[in-house]
Design brief:
543 residues, alpha+beta, Lipocalin, 2 domains, eight-stranded antiparallel barrel, 16 helices
Length: 543
């Protein structure tokens, strides 16, 4: 055989191509066999995907069960009047809970049937779980449930979910399934705080007064939006006397250097002034500590019932979806989560009573940091989905800030996400009372670290502080001098004239209604007053 230089080089090239190709092909075959040979993968931590987390949120709570068919009773329980406690941990993939009579579920003894299921492969159209019999020798399954969330029909009158499906008995000896019995389960509506925390008629009349609703919204709106407004809108507010602070020395609350302009002092003073009026009217007392998250049904079923029945008015209401604003939906979910309670709320609870930390902050720095972080998130964590007072329909993004329809002035409208109504909500006074007490912690911290550098005084009938190295401003901003502040309830009280109410409405339209501009503010999704700085999910599963 005659070898030439060209044939040798060609042979080497073919060999060099075949060897890597065979190696790569072999690796692909190996990987395919590993994936498809039936060998299970190693265990790993797998939090629930976002779609499962949202399904869990809809399932979590108390349900009334109705069984239709020939069953006169379940094994050991009557067929009528039963309740389900359904629970799933945050980012968990398991379903747990109990089924029994309402009385037994609220008693210390272990309920008759334990609910055990998982949410792997579950969807609103298919959810399964089993009932384990407490009295069985091996705690064996006695019944199996197969249900779906009934999205085909409107929600019931209370705005809650409905489960439909069937239940089948499992023979404990043979494991054979019995006939199917149709079931329906109705989720209990989450009670509102004002249904549990009764306030005096005098307090309600004061908080819901037109001028006080408008004042509270406008005081916040002027400070919150000042840095975003055009000079023309700023001048319009100046002309009405509603610029946030002295003329040409305004103190915005959310723009650049807001922690150094004294706006935090304004925040503390205005709310302390509100408290001096509300407390004699028997406003709800300050929290001693932040209420803990929901207990697990599997460990504390009695506590689970108390939580979802909102016995003390301080349970965290369920989250909600805003289809037009996914980031807002995610932010609300995160703020209401148990994880955020432990990572943020309990940290703030400690930090804002820590003398070492507080002694390094001026009053303005402290107020600004607390307002834009903890304060806003307290409003959102304890808020329920906003609803139209006229018909109860959900308004996920909240009331339009310049909508002054009469329906929003009803005493029932106490939405915590809206500064027009948040101060009507009983829980507002619980956490604002807690915030106000931190002012005394701040003073005590400076007395220890800088004796005599912070001096107490009385200002507008409020216990306050002299300006100095740790108190940036002399006169906290409360609004135009012609308005004063919140009207005091009394037979001879001087309330704002009707024209002043109109002035406040006009000022709110100037500050909040930016539909005539092409600014970035106008293009951004509209969100409630306290939802301007929301957390972002860092590890997002499939929705």
């Amino acid at each position: 055989m005659h070898l030439t230089r060209r044939s040798v080089l060609a042979g080497l090239a073919i060999t060099g191509a075949l060897i890597p190709a065979s190696y790569i092909g072999g690796r692909k075959i190996h990987n395919y066999l590993e994936r498809h040979d039936g060998t299970p993968p190693p265990a790993r931590v797998e939090p629930a995907e976002l779609s499962i987390q949202r399904l869990s949120s809809r399932l979590r709570g108390i349900w009334t069960l109705k069984i239709t068919g020939d069953a006169e009773e379940l094994h050991g329980l009557p067929a009528d009047g039963l309740e389900l406690f359904l629970d799933s941990a945050e980012r968990g993939r398991a379903l747990r809970g109990f089924m029994d009579t309402p009385e037994n579920l609220r008693a210390p003894a272990l309920p008759r049937y334990k609910i055990v299921g998982d949410l792997m492969g579950a969807s609103p159209g298919l959810i399964r779980w089993r009932l384990l019999d407490r009295d069985a020798a091996r705690y064996t399954p006695r019944y199996e449930f197969t249900v779906m969330l009934d999205d085909a029909q409107p929600l019931n009158a209370s705005g809650t979910d409905v489960l439909i499906g069937h239940i089948q008995r499992v023979d404990p000896q043979t494991g054979l399934m019995g006939s199917k019995l149709a079931i329906t389960a109705l989720k209990h509506a989450f009670p509102k705080a004002h249904e549990r925390m009764v306030t005096s008629p005098e307090f309600v009349a004061w908080a819901t007064a037109t001028e006080n609703r408008l004042y509270h919204q406008l005081w916040h709106a002027s400070r919150d939006r000042w840095h975003e407004l055009s000079e023309a809108r700023r001048n319009a507010l100046r002309g009405l006397g509603w610029q946030p602070g002295p003329l040409d020395a305004e103190r915005h609350a959310r723009g650049r250097n807001m922690d150094r302009n004294g706006s935090g002092v304004d925040f503390f003073f205005m709310h302390r002034h509100m408290l001096t009026i509300a407390r004699p009217l028997n406003a709800p007392p300050a929290w001693r500590h932040f209420p803990l998250p929901q207990p697990a049904a599997e460990r504390d079923w009695v506590g689970f019932a108390r939580y979802f029945e909102n016995v003390d008015g301080c349970s965290v209401p369920p989250t909600w979806l805003t289809p037009s604003d996914e980031k807002f939906t995610e932010g609300i979910e995160l703020i209401k989560s148990p994880e955020t309670f432990h990572t943020n709320f309990q940290m703030w609870e400690s930090r804002y009573s820590d003398a070492d930390y507080l002694s390094r902050l001026t009053l303005g720095q402290f107020g600004s940091e607390l307002e834009l972080g903890l304060h806003d998130w307290l409003h959102m964590r304890w808020a329920s989905i906003p609803r139209d007072p006229a018909n109860g329909s959900p308004v996920p993004a909240g009331r339009e800030p310049a909508d002054f329809s009469q329906k929003w002035f009803t005493t029932e409208y106490d939405c915590l996400v809206d500064s027009f109504s948040s101060h009507v909500h009983p829980v507002f006074w619980c956490f604002h009372g807690w915030i106000d007490e931190r002012l005394d912690d701040w003073f005590d911290a400076h007395e220890r670290a800088h004796p005599g550098q912070v001096v107490r005084r009385r200002l507008m009938e409020v216990d306050w502080f002299e300006p100095g190295p740790w108190v940036e401003i002399d006169e906290p901003w409360m609004g135009p001098l012609t308005h004063g502040c919140f009207s005091r309830p009394a037979p001879d009280a001087i309330k704002p004239l009707e024209q002043d109410i109109d002035v406040m409405k006009l000022a709110l339209k100037i500050a909040c209604d930016t539909r005539d501009t092409a600014s970035a503010l106008n293009r951004a999704p509209r969100r409630p007053s306290y939802a301007r700085d929301l957390p972002v999910r860092t590890h997002v599963g499939k929705a």
